[in-house]
Amino acid sequence: MERRWQGYYYDGKTASRSAIFVTITPHSMRLTREDGSSFDWRISEVLQTQGFYEGEPVRIERGTEAFSVNERAFIEDLLKTAPAEASRFKTSKTRSVLPIWMPFAAAGAAAALAALYLWGIPALASYAADAVTPSWEEKLGANLVAQFTTGHENCANEKTTEQVENLLEVLNRAAQGGNPLPHPYKFKIHIIKNPMVNAFAAPGGHIVIFTGLLKAAKNSDELAGVMAHEMQHVFRKHATKSIFENLSTQMIMAVITGDTSGVAGLVHAIGAFRYTRIHEQDADERAVDLLQRAGVNPEGLIEFFKTIEKTYGNTSSALAYLSTHPVTRERIGYIRERIGERRVYSPPMTDAAWKDAMTGCG
Fold it and tell me: Are 291 and 301 contacting, i.e. CB atoms less than 8 angstroms apart?
């Protein structure tokens, strides 16, 4: 009887994953979705990119698509069921051991990172994201945002863009602080005419804000809180790490070697990054610090969360933001703890400036 292996499928077009069951035949793997629909991958067409080391999930890829199974015995089943096709698949039991420095012998850092990924070293996503330069991130982010905004109308209202960019500059000056060396990112705001309450950061300093979020925020403190949070995702390279964690090897190779045009399939993913709880807490706490340095009330971040929960609830307008930035009591608690003693703050925008920012795009 064929064994069904539970795993997750990645379509290579989004950063989301879907649950699947995988069964193995002598010449193919059948992937079955939860709704019962299925499709086959020929074993001769796939590549194993992870699962060589103890405790590491098995990852199988075909082009830009991939699936993962969190059991090493999957490969043992594959070797048993399809011996003629599966001799190139390995586990930690069957794989020959090579010195860890071998992948680096290829040459430059890009080739070394690509080799490391192919060899399945755990946590490479973090290492790779830390290794790439801000200028490379900027190109990737610009490419992704350009593709994302195709088909979306940009806000062309000069008053709105000016006021939001002025607020960004207030936060950016605070981010520079007293450092003699400025941070390497050049932030750019993209305002999209869309009623959804959403905002996200793409790699390299690109921040996308939907007009629905501008209308949802009650004041400039709340908008500043959202923007400071997204800026921290850029500084901490959370979006870049998310990309590396979800790309197939083929796409990893493209972006590592600078071929940013090779990641067109990610366009649907950049608006739906789901950061880890650790990344969100990191961005929250650092956003509080940034807001305080800028003289902006960090309570605005908490109040924005409360505003969209109270005003929009679980409507489709708010779900986009809440799905990627879930609000919990724990989250509000550690933000309040980070804020500490109450201080006197000044709104970062005048009432007139806030009106321009909120209503200028219709």
Answer: yes
Longest dimension (CA), the chain: 73
Instruction: Name 23's bridge partners.
Output: 30
Phi, psi (deg, nearest 5) at residue 199: -160, 145
Residues of the chain below pLDDT 70: 1, 13-16, 53-56, 92-128, 130-131, 178-181, 246-274, 311-328, 362
Q: pLDDT, tens digit, for every residue of 6-43?
A: 999 988 766 567 899 999 999 999 999 999 999 999 99
Q: Identify the CA nearest to 69 among candidates 111, 10, 119, 127.
A: 10
Q: Supply the Cα-derived Rg of the chain in whole angstroms.
A: 23
What is the rounded distance in angstroms from the CA atom of residue 96 to the CA atom of residue 236?
36
CB atoms within 10 A of CB 82: 19
Listed in order, strand segments (DSSP E) in the chain are 5-10, 18-24, 28-33, 38-42, 47-50, 58-62, 65-69, 188-192, 199-202, 206-210
CA proximity to 131, closest of 148, 115, 143? 115
The pLDDT tens digits of the residues spanning 72-101 come to 889 999 999 999 888 888 775 544 433 333
| DSSP-based three-state secondary structure for 22 | strand
The pLDDT of residue 102 = 35
- Compute the distance between CA of residue 137 and CA of residue 149 in angstroms, rounded to an integer: 18
**C-alpha–C-alpha distance, residues 26 and 15, integer Å:** 31
* Residue 202 φ then ψ, to 5°: -100, 160
Q: Where are the alpha helices (DSSP H) in 247-315?
A: 249-256, 277-294, 299-312
Cα–Cα–Cα angle for 78, 82, 88, rounded to 5 degrees: 70
**Per-residue model confidence (pLDDT) at position 59:** 83
Instruction: Provide the 10 A C-beta neighbour count for residue 164.
Output: 26
Which domains occur in the chain, in start order?
5-96 (2.30.29.30), 98-131 (no CATH), 134-359 (no CATH)
C-alpha to C-alpha distance for 265 and 15, rounded to whole angstroms: 10
C-alpha triplet 122, 17, 230: angle, nearest 5°: 80
What type of residue is 72? Answer: R
pLDDT at 183: 83
Could you tell me how far CA 341 lies from the centroid of its own chain? Answer: 33
